[in-house]
Amino acid sequence: MGNVDIVANALNQYSKVIKVTNESVSLSVDYQQIMESKPTIKDKKGFFFFFDAETDETTVIDNSKVAQTIYYGCPGTGKSFVVKSIAEGKKGEKIIWYDKSHSKVENPTDEQKKDLYNNIFRTTFHPDYDYATFVGCYKPGKNDAGELDYRFVPQVFTNAYVAALRHPEDPIFLIIEEINRGNCAQIFGDLFQLLDRTNGESDYEIKPDTELAKFLATEGVPSESLKLPANLHIYATMNTSDQSLFPMDSAFKRRWEMEYKPIQYYGSEADIFTFEIGDKKYSWIAFLQMVNDLIVNATDSEDKQMGEFFIKGPVTEKEFVNKVMFYLWNDVCKDLYNPRRVSAPYFMRIKTLTEGEKNDYFTFAELFSDRNKGSRLLLGFLEYIESKFKENNPSTELKLEPIQ
């Protein structure tokens, strides 16, 4: 391999902007948008990771090792995406399918999948979620003779537990979204004891309820006691900005691995996301860095910041207003607003006032008024947050300008 080959391989592997093919050099089709969000050399970490190739988070996970992990962070940091990638892969290639006789089915069609089940069991906690919703309970139904009968109806935990016992060689995933929105003590009940695990298996056994024990016996799995097997992986996500009705106690959290998902300003797919104001497009990442700086200042907390995937791709002005600006108003700025005296950290403001205009601040509702004619408030807001960001970060070279 000659020097040219070495340089070409290095550029193709590590650069998101420059590509080399057959000794010819070309720029990425998105290079203008990418370079708009390029960090300065003063931001050494950001500068380094900007030129690093995107990492595939699924490659660092060993599914043979038991996992009981809560991914937590600000809204939009990709917590659910990480969990999905671990369990399913990028395109569902990791999913294992089974038929009604519990035999594996290789590469089933979409039509076949309707009659199959797989190794992933998913649920979302909420304030009304309880033990019966998580484990199961008796419900009325008709028996084979068409008569009204009561039978135990299993829910997500029991279904995942039975699948793990039936398929001990396969990884089985129980995924809990928004775990901090439910009352975990009530939902888990005595299952809490099972979360203490060594080499994947529960350290302690518990006796199942009579109804649950009968159901497990009918499914042909051990029913005298409950003990989590090593192949049952439990992943959960937790949005730290939520004002949880039921805070998780330290004893519960101690039984989980906790992994923080930070905001990634550089080196993610969001690098090329844009939003529209009027007929102009702006860099989402540049905006995000500036507005998050003001969010932290206004709330004295990092939890209310927005992650890079708060939007899922390029968005129109209407989408930007109804998703981003509404979040800034409802979750961050509203409590700082009082018509008689607006708090200093309140940052829904414009930089330049028109003749006769008394206030530099505006409310969310005013974005739909004549005051925002021609998107004047939105454009003034972008100008304001850029000026405040530069005021707080004098050495920055970051700009929020229309993308050509």
| Arithmetic mean pLDDT | 86
Instruction: Give the overall shape, derived from the CA principal axes.
Output: elongated
CATH fold node name of the largest domain:
Rossmann fold
Uncertain stretches: 41-61
Q: How many helices in DSSP terms?
A: 13
What percent of residues adopt helix (DSSP H or I)? 25-40%
What order do the helices and strands follow? HEEHHEHEEHEEHEEHEHEEHEHEEEHHH
Largest sheet: 5 strands, parallel
CATH first level of the largest domain: which class?
A: Alpha Beta
CATH architecture of the largest domain: 3-Layer(aba) Sandwich
As a whole number of angstroms, the C-alpha radius of gyration is 26 Å
The number of distinct β-strands equals 16
* Class of secondary structure makeup: alpha/beta
Distance between the first and last residues' Cα: 40 Å
